[in-house]
Design goal:
Number of helices of chain A: 30
Domain DUF403 (chain A): 503-818
Distance between the termini of chain B: 6 Å
Protein name (chain A): Circularly permuted type 2 ATP-grasp protein
Order of helices and strands of chain B: EEEEEHHHHEHEHEEEEEHEE
Shape of chain B: globular
Domain Circularly permuted ATP-grasp type (chain A): 78-452
Strand content of chain B: 35-45%
Oligomer: heterodimer
Number of strands of chain B: 14
Distance between the termini of chain A: 56 Å
Shape of chain A: elongated
Largest sheet of chain A: 7 strands, mixed
Pfam families (chain A): Alpha-E (PF04168), CP_ATPgrasp_2 (PF14403)
Helix content of chain A: 40-55%
Largest sheet of chain B: 7 strands, antiparallel
Low-confidence stretches of chain A: 1-10, 62-69
InterPro entries (chain A): ATP-dep_Glu-Cys_Ligase-2, CP_ATPgrasp_2, DUF403
Chain lengths: 833, 292
């Protein structure tokens, strides 16, 4: 590490964003500094509030990605950029975007640049991002290759901004920039009142326009969507966020099919054509037919559909080919050739070692340089000065064997900008990521972006990743009038729609199961609570013993406790140990909690922030407490109470915040179906014992259906089977009763049939009549029902009948509405003999 | 030589396939020395959509989409092809291989962009150190390119056992080399890797080989199935010369080419994505009849 210190240029030579050479504060920073100085409680508490908001929105971490590295933190100090400075950057970025778009058109077209020796052919032919199936030989040429673009910029000691990296394949982070601005505007409102900071929002409206503009020419109302690899993607938060900001649905490859050159989204009502895809899926995964055959994330036939010109991808397939830093040394000449203009923004000095002169230069200065593989998958920088002699020799051998696979560059000295270290402002290196979208014949630049402090000792580390410390970028307007919001997004007449059947089949499927899982969690928690409360009382009397034996059977059946301990005597240590281990990973409760977490995370785009917070961070907390309770009944009971309350919160949010469209219908359908099954399997199960012991059965049935209080109010606590069964089965006003569920299910199925045109039959009306006549059997005096074997058998028959109906219904719903397409598989012949 | 070709591929599925996409590199194209006078492709079931394209390498691809449920897929090519690959140059008079390499590298800017594409690693032909060493035995300093490449072809034929089933398309090249056994595509990949490791340009050619030699009636390996061999760049004068390491031959008039690319993955005869079907088996029948 010692040697490295000599390597990295001393910060003394770095450009200071804040302070001039004469040690005075630059004019454009004075506004923010005076706002901070005037804050009554100091900056610290504002920072806390902003960080909390970002954590809650899920922006700082991918919920399904627990790698700590995926996290980033937020610095409240923006990078402030003066208007004249910005207009130079802006103009340079527009030029570079125009240039790269033309370079892409050439690479995927005639390849004149290679033939004219302006670009080394190896940068294309050996580049993993060069996708030969995207080469236009006879099909439709994309209207535009580069629809959006991100650039990393650094300001070097000479005070000029230089391009550090181009991101053309999956330019990420614009959504984070907008979210960060939203949060900062809430936590530091005084700054935005007094400083003319340019707005970000209009950029996203233009982005929407830009997507429309690449739609196939004959489509006047293009359907657009954002193609995501799914919730496991590290930038899934941004996909969800962008799809909301741009007002286009989020789709995964599995949501779509290509037929006859047309790509369509599978919805409840059938196939809905899609014309433009904002592509956030790596090109090589886009189509298992023509790209990587092992891709399960793409759409079979997508490449062919783009060739036929019926769908446009933004960016076009294979746009990542110009990302390689090896292009940089050649762009100046390419710009002269394609645009007839010199480059306005210089690139960082990079040597592509495929040229013998560059190779000998780099080998002569190797110890001072950073070497990067530039064409394959791995593009990690190697700091030569840090290598052991043997490693260094191995690197030299690799370079000599394939020099064209490497670039070399010197460590750079990014400019310094103030950062909040928790106590005060300290200088820190900064890299600016800027965003560009196509706008008719030219490009438009986001007046802002993401600034970040690069990780590690050298700023070349982790260039492409949005890790570390991120901050907002404030581009100042010449005068406050410029900050007025420009006119709204251009008006396109929309057909008025209510509760559409456009819901994607996959989303309907997820909502249905989320409904079932939430309900199952509620039932499981109540069952456990009922049990734990009895055990916690200590002395187990004969009455409790009967109940606990019944509960043990139910716990076994629901896989909440392991078989042996669930059936052990309730007062035994074995039973109590089993109860204490309910939160263990292999038990039912963990499965249900996992399911809810997974489904809410994958459907973040469908839910409000409140709902995802309830299901995300809050649930993780509950789960921790459940695990911590291990072996101790009081905290276990408290955690179970919390789960029941948590389910109530979630239900309340769903009930009050979701429109009663198809989505909510599926969620509620799942809940009703699951609750119906719970009543049949759990609440009525205790009646299978001898009627002599039915006092216990009745108490449990009421408790598991949360109907004890209603019963007590109505019947003053005297337990008899007819009124108990009436309340838990027949009473259509009891939301915990069976008939209530059956009627709700029927209502949902009717609605869905009308909305989608696809009908699924509800359980027959005769079921309700059967239930009624059985419950009537228990109406006689006590002697009668306590000894009535026939009524008992009838009850057993009708409940098992009802259970079968509900099981079949779940299957029928799956068949009718969900994407039950079998997984695609690749087939192929061998090469021959 | 004039040929009548028929090549039929059949997939049989264990259960119903609901829909399928197939991409075929089956439509033989013209090459220097080869002219396709007529060609037709028929599938059963008939496709809902069939399109044709020219790919990056100038090959003809056909894409089919089948919508109706089926348990069997047949695709048959019938073609008439006239073949006479150019007389190979006298091996000893071809340029030294180092000269070819230098021209292909061109200090980063080779003159022949179309040829230099074939000097790089490709999906099924990564660089394998053992293969570099294997190639070095023939690529001795100053040796004429074709002499060296031709010897390499003979060595592969001698050193490797022709053994269908010893490998499949997923067997890594290093394992193929270590096992010293395989089929035509393995031999072609071995030779391509050995040449590219020394900076030379080599391509993979898919096609067929004539079954019966008119008089001696010697059945050549690779008959009654697709075949594959190697095209090696021998400089501006000689151009691409086609070498068949499976049979230790220079392709003349016994070989009919269909398509070429960097390796098998660029020219896979038939590739598809199906929905349903469970497991599948396939059969191939090729007849190549000389008609004069």
């Amino acid at each position: 590490m010692e040697s490295l210190r000599g390597l990295s240029s001393s910060p003394a030579s770095a450009y200071d964003e804040l302070v001039t050479g004469q040690k005075s504060i630059r004019y454009h920073w004075q506004g923010i500094l005076s706002v901070i100085r005037a804050l009554p409680g100091g900056l610290g508490e504002r920072v806390e509030s902003a960080r909390r908001q970002l954590d809650e929105s899920g922006a700082t971490v991918n919920l399904l990605d627990d790698r700590a590295a995926a996290r980033w933190t937020f610095d409240p100090l923006p990078l402030v950029i003066a208007p004249d400075e910005w207009s130079r950057i802006e103009s340079g970025l527009i030029q570079r975007a125009r240039l790269l778009d033309k370079v892409l058109a050439d690479i995927y077209g005639p390849q004149q640049l290679l033939k004219e020796h302006l670009l080394p052919p190896m940068l294309v032919h050996a580049n993993r991002h060069f996708l030969r199936p995207a080469q236009v030989t006879d099909g439709a040429e994309p209207q535009r290759h580069l629809c959006h673009y991100a650039v990393d910029l650094v300001r070097l000691s000479d005070g000029r901004w230089h391009v550090l990296a181009d991101h053309t394949e999956l330019p990420a982070g614009a959504g984070y920039a907008l979210e960060m601005r939203r949060v900062l505007a809430r936590s530091l409102p005084e700054a935005f009142r007094s400083i003319p900071v340019r707005h970000l929002r209009p950029f996203f409206d233009r982005w929407h326009e830009s997507l429309r503009s690449v739609a196939p020419a004959n489509v006047s109302q293009p359907n657009m969507a954002l193609l995501t690899p799914g919730s496991l993607s590290a930038t899934y938060f941004e996909h969800v966020y962008l799809s909301r900001v741009l007002g286009i649905p989020l789709v995964e490859g599995g949501d779509m099919v290509a037929r006859d050159g047309q790509v369509s989204i599978k919805t409840l009502a059938g196939l809905r054509p899609v014309h433009v895809l904002l592509r956030r899926l790596d090109s090589s995964f886009a189509d298992p037919l023509e790209m990587r055959a092992d891709s399960a994330l793409g759409v079979t036939g997508l490449v062919e559909a783009t060739r036929s010109g019926r769908i446009a991808l933004a960016n076009a397939l294979g746009s990542g080919v110009v990302e390689t830093p090896a292009m940089m040394p050649f762009l100046e000449r390419v710009s002269e050739r394609l645009l007839g203009e010199p480059l306005e923004l210089p690139s960082l000095d990079v040597w592509w070692l495929g040229e013998p002169s560059a190779l000998s230069f780099a080998l002569a200065n190797l110890d001072l340089m950073i070497v990067r593989p530039c064409l394959g998958q791995d593009r990690e920088p190697i700091i030569v000065g840090m290598l052991e002699p043997a490693e260094r020799q191995a690197l030299v051998d690799r370079i000599r064997a394939q020099p064209g696979q490497f670039v070399a560059q010197y460590p750079m000295t990014p400019s310094l900008t103030p950062k909040w270290d928790g106590q005060s402002l300290v200088p820190s290196a900064v890299v600016l990521r800027a965003y560009v979208v196509a706008d008719h014949d030219t490009y438009h630049v986001l007046p802002g972006g993401l600034a970040r402090e690069p990780d590690g000792d050298t700023a070349l580390r982790s260039l492409a990743r949005l890790h570390g410390t991120l901050k907002d970028v404030w581009v100042l307007a010449e005068d406050a009038a410029d900050v007025q919001l420009p006119p709204m997004r251009r008006f396109h007449q929309l057909a008025v729609e209510r509760s559409s059947a456009d819901l994607q089949s996959r989303v309907a499927d997820n909502l249905f199961w989320l409904g079932r899982y939430i309900e199952r969690l509620d039932n499981d928690a109540r069952l456990l609570r009922t049990t734990a409360a009895r055990v916690a009382q200590g002395a187990v009397g004969p009455r409790d013993a009967v109940e606990l034996r019944l509960l043990g059977r139910l716990l076994d059946q629901a896989n909440l406790m392991d078989h042996t301990s669930a059936l052990a005597p309730p007062e035994s240590a074995l039973f109590q140990q089993g109860l204490a281990a309910v939160a263990a990973d292999d038990r039912g409760l963990a499965t249900v909690l996992d399911g809810i977490q997974r489904l809410t995370a994958t459907m973040r785009d469908r839910f409000s922030i409140d709902m995802t917070t309830a299901a995300g961070p809050e649930m993780i907390e509950v789960r921790k407490r459940l695990l911590a309770a291990r072996g101790n009944l009081d905290p276990l009971l408290a955690a179970l109470d919390e789960i029941v309350r948590f389910v109530a919160t979630l239900s309340g949010l769903a009930q009050e915040n979701m429109t009663r469209g198809t989505g909510w219908r599926f969620l509620d359908l799942g809940r009703r179906l699951e609750r119906g099954l719970h009543i049949l399997n759990a609440a009525l199960a205790p009646f299978s014992i001898s009627p002599i012991d039915w006092d216990a059965s009745m108490r449990l049935a009421l408790e598991l259906c949360d109907s004890t209080i209603t019963y007590r109010t109505r019947y003053l606590g005297q337990l008899q089977p007819a009124p108990v069964l009436d309340l838990v089965i027949l009473d259509d006003a009891n939301p915990r009763g069976l008939v209530f569920q059956l009627r709700a299910i029927k209502g949902h199925l009717d609605y869905l049939a009308r909305a989608s045109g696809v009908t699924v039959a509800a359980p027959p009306d005769s079921l309700e009549a059967d239930l009624e006549s059985v419950v009537r059997q228990f109406g006689g005096d006590e002697q009668a029902w306590r000894h009535e074997g026939l009524a008992l058998a009838l009850l057993r028959d009708v409940t098992s009948d009802a259970e079968q109906h509900l099981d079949k219904l779940s299957e029928a719903i799956t068949r009718a509405y969900f994407s039950h397409v079998p997984a695609a598989q690749a087939v192929g012949s061998s090469g021959g003999d | 030589m004039h040929y009548l070709l028929s090549h039929r591929t059949t997939y049989t599925y264990a259960s119903t396939v609901d829909s399928a996409h197939h991409i075929a590199h089956l439509r033989a194209r013209d090459f220097p020395g080869q002219k396709v006078t007529s060609i037709s492709i028929v599938t059963s079931p008939l496709p809902a959509l069939a399109t044709q394209h020219v790919d990056h390498f100038g090959n003809l691809i056909d894409i089919y989409r089948i919508d109706k449920p089926h348990t069997r897929f047949d695709i048959e090519v019938r073609a008439e092809v006239e073949v006479r690959f150019p007389e190979p140059p006298v091996a000893a008079s071809t340029p030294p291989w180092e000269e070819i390499r230098a021209a292909l590298h061109g200090d980063g800017f080779p003159r022949r962009v179309d040829v230099s594409e074939f000097i790089h690693e490709s999906p099924l032909v990564p660089s394998v150190e053992a293969l570099r060493a294997y190639g070095a035995v023939s690529l001795t300093p100053g040796r004429p390119i074709l002499e060296a490449a031709r010897e390499l072809t003979s060595r592969i034929k001698a050193d490797f056992e022709y053994h269908p089933g010893a490998t499949d398309i997923s067997t890594p090249l290093g394992d193929v080399f270590a096992g010293k056994a395989g089929v035509c595509q393995d031999f072609a990949h071995v030779q391509i890797a050995a040449l590219r490791a020394h900076g030379l340009a080599a391509g993979y050619v898919s096609g067929y080989i004539r079954t019966i030699h008119s008089r001696e009636e010697i059945a050549l390996r690779g008959a009654d199935a697709s075949h594959a061999w190697v095209a090696v760049w021998c400089g501006e004068d000689a151009g691409w010369v086609h070498l068949d390491p499976t049979n230790d031959l220079i392709a003349q008039e016994d070989h009919v080419a269909v398509a070429w690319g960097r390796d098998f993955s660029d020219v896979s005869p038939l590739r598809g994505v199906i929905l349903g079907g469970d497991s599948h088996s396939y059969g191939v029948a090729v007849t190549l009849v000389p008609t004069g």
